[in-house]
Write a structure and sequence with these properties.
By secondary structure, this protein is mainly β. It folds into two domains: 217 residues, no CATH class; 145 residues, Porin (Beta Barrel), CATH 2.40.160. 10% of the residues lie in helices and 48% in strands. It is built from four helices and 21 strands. It has an eight-stranded antiparallel β-barrel with strand order 12-13-14-15-17-18-20-21. A seven-stranded mixed sheet has the order 4-3-7-8-2-1-10. The protein has a two-stranded antiparallel ribbon with strand order 5-6. The chain starts with 18 loop residues before the first helix and ends with a strand.
């Protein structure tokens, strides 16, 4: 039987990942919010990604980390002997303090050569990759408010090297000096603090061969928790068996309650456009205006490798007719919208239209493009 059984299904961040990838990949590591690149000689480089300054300070002695990893990888030297293949090694310090290692080797797409003075020689073009991941467990409330845990990646150090077997040669003090310089620049930042760390992203570049090509750790870019923006939508709806177009223009208040969820409160003017042709006259446009309030829960990119598909649309709306033209609506008309379906920015929104105290109650269906 192929595929995962119910008991083997993944939840949350790891949906769609095999058990091996869950173990060795960083997953949806949105908490690795800070990224620093260290460019070394001969095109080698190191990328340090981490969640906080506390994690950064634990990685200051890069030489020591390299020596420990190189010693452990020496146990697998027979698997690293082929000089031409591209190698990727995932090295995990898990939450229980155990070391897990995955080695993947890829043959080049054809053979590449360089013509030297003494004849042709095989040429390796693609670099080797070593990913060092530090994991930790974090408590959470599971289904039915039962306590549980899940794994967070506290840091990821990616070595992009011409030859992984020469890893230990990079424990020469250069990386330690680079980490010290990055920390000094981080210490000098005025707008960063431990309190706002969760909503900032820092980055910087240290270049060993040409310091002028480096980039200082910049003042943090803040992800606003609350903000107000203009809002526009265009729609097509069926009202009393009449197909009509509409648009919406107004303001939107967004409130980011957590990294995976944003609440959107929208207030906008929403004209409906009807066209009729009285006897012996030209087509005439009749505009009926609503003032509409809409509430939407947005959960963008919550799962890894999320397939684009039609899914449940979490929005509610209520509108009131403020301008009436023609006999399409009665006086004191209201409309109420309920959750429907969506595909990307296209939303299908069932509505109910009535006037007064639920008189002339009729269903409607609205298809609109959310130009957020």
């Amino acid at each position: 039987m192929s595929g995962n059984l119910f008991a083997q299904s993944e939840w949350g961040y790891y949906r769609g990942k095999s058990k091996t990838d869950q173990l060795f990949d960083a997953g949806n590591a949105t908490w690795l919010r800070h990224r620093f690149t260290i460019s070394l000689k001969d095109g080698n480089s190191v990328i340090v990604q981490l969640s906080s300054k506390t994690e950064f300070e634990k990685l200051m002695n890069m030489d020591s980390i390299i020596k420990v990893v190189a010693k452990n990888l020496s146990l697998f030297k027979d698997s690293l002997q082929n000089e031409i293949t591209q190698k990727r090694i995932d090295y995990v310090n898990d939450a229980a303090g155990l070391i897990k290692i995955r080695i993947r080797e890829h043959q080049p797409d054809g053979n590449s050569f360089v013509l030297a003075a003494d004849g042709p020689a095989l040429l390796k073009v693609d670099q080797d990759t070593l990913n060092i991941l530090g994991q930790r467990s974090k408590g959470r409330m599971g289904a039915g408010n039962m306590p549980g845990v899940y794994i967070q990646v506290a840091y990821r150090i990616s070595f992009l090297l011409n030859d992984i077997t020469k890893l230990e040669s990079f424990a020469d003090g250069t990386l330690n000096a680079a980490m010290t310089e990055i920390k000094n620049q981080w210490d000098e930042l005025k707008n960063w603090s431990e309190q706002n760390n969760w909503r900032t992203n820092l980055s910087g570049v240290y270049n060993q061969e040409n310091p002028a090509l480096g980039r200082r750790v910049g003042e943090p870019h803040f992800r606003r928790k609350q903000s107000i923006q203009p809002y526009v939508q265009v729609g097509l709806q069926n009202v009393n068996n009449i197909l009509t177009t509409s648009t919406g223009v107004g303001l939107q208040l967004t409130n980011k309650t957590r990294p995976s969820q944003t609440l959107r409160y929208q207030l906008f003017w929403e004209p409906y456009f009807f066209f009729d042709k009285p006897a012996n006259s030209k087509f005439k446009m009749r505009r009926n205006d609503f003032v509409t309030f809409q509430y939407i829960i947005s959960i963008p990119g919550y799962y890894i490798d999320r397939n684009e598909k039609i899914e449940f649309n979490q929005n509610l709306s209520i509108g009131y007719l403020i301008h009436r033209s023609g006999d399409y609506f009665n006086e004191t008309t209201f409309k109420v919208g309920l959750p429907g379906a969506r595909y990307k920015f296209l939303r299908l929104h069932p509505e109910f239209i009535f006037n007064g105290l639920f008189k002339n109650f009729q269903p409607a269906l609205k298809l609109f493009l959310d130009l957020d």
